[in-house]
């Protein structure tokens, strides 16, 4: 199953410029998702990171990866209207820079869930090259009850 940007925006509360998933190319609800983010020079962070040598900030790579996991977590109808909040990040590794023209492909899977808390692992790739990986602790909350 694939999800386009309009379907993603029905699931995630994020909106541009903080919506960092362009398409979900594979999803197994509440288990895993694979999504893409096309990196373009038109994005605002490249005006200052870094002029003449644009590199996607690591924090935005992590956010894009977490959002793909968020789609997997929030896809089931009973989770719609909730927000997946960061509880922490562990084992964060950056292997290679991500630059305009790249397509960041994130493979995220839910490791465990206990109630409204859980652990998500995500790997980010450009082509066949692993560029980043991380474990994300999360809490699911009602969007109007943060």
Automatic annotation (TrEMBL):
<dbReference type="GO" id="GO:0009245">
    <property type="term" value="P:lipid A biosynthetic process"/>
</dbReference>
<dbReference type="GO" id="GO:0019171">
    <property type="term" value="F:(3R)-hydroxyacyl-[acyl-carrier-protein] dehydratase activity"/>
</dbReference>
<dbReference type="Pfam" id="PF07977">
    <property type="entry name" value="FabA"/>
</dbReference>
<dbReference type="GO" id="GO:0006633">
    <property type="term" value="P:fatty acid biosynthetic process"/>
</dbReference>
<keyword id="KW-0444">Lipid biosynthesis</keyword>
<dbReference type="InterPro" id="IPR010084">
    <property type="entry name" value="FabZ"/>
</dbReference>
<comment type="function">
    <text>Involved in unsaturated fatty acids biosynthesis. Catalyzes the dehydration of short chain beta-hydroxyacyl-ACPs and long chain saturated and unsaturated beta-hydroxyacyl-ACPs.</text>
</comment>
<keyword id="KW-0963">Cytoplasm</keyword>
<dbReference type="GO" id="GO:0005737">
    <property type="term" value="C:cytoplasm"/>
</dbReference>
<comment type="similarity">
    <text>Belongs to the thioester dehydratase family. FabZ subfamily.</text>
</comment>
<keyword id="KW-0456">Lyase</keyword>
<protein>
    <recommendedName>
        <fullName>3-hydroxyacyl-[acyl-carrier-protein] dehydratase FabZ</fullName>
        <ecNumber>4.2.1.59</ecNumber>
    </recommendedName>
</protein>
<keyword id="KW-0441">Lipid A biosynthesis</keyword>
<dbReference type="InterPro" id="IPR013114">
    <property type="entry name" value="FabA_FabZ"/>
</dbReference>
<keyword id="KW-0443">Lipid metabolism</keyword>
<feature type="active site">
    <location>
        <position position="49"/>
    </location>
</feature>
<dbReference type="InterPro" id="IPR029069">
    <property type="entry name" value="HotDog_dom_sf"/>
</dbReference>
<dbReference type="GO" id="GO:0016020">
    <property type="term" value="C:membrane"/>
</dbReference>
């Amino acid at each position: 199953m694939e999800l386009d940007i309009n379907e993603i925006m029905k699931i995630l509360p994020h909106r541009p410029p903080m919506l960092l998933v362009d398409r979900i190319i594979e999803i197994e609800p509440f288990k895993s998702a694979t999504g893409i983010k096309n990196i373009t020079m038109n994005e605002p962070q490249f005006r200052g990171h870094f002029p003449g040598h644009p590199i996607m900030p690591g924090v935005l790579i992590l956010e894009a990866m977490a959002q793909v996991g968020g789609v997997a977590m929030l896809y089931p109808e009973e989770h719609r209207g909730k927000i997946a909040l960061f509880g922490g990040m562990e084992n964060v590794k950056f292997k290679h820079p991500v630059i305009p023209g790249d397509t960041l492909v994130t493979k995220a899977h839910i490791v465990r869930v206990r109630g409204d808390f859980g652990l998500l692992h995500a790997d980010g790739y450009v082509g066949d090259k692993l560029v980043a990986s991380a474990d994300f602790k999360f809490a699911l909350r009602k969007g109007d009850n943060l």
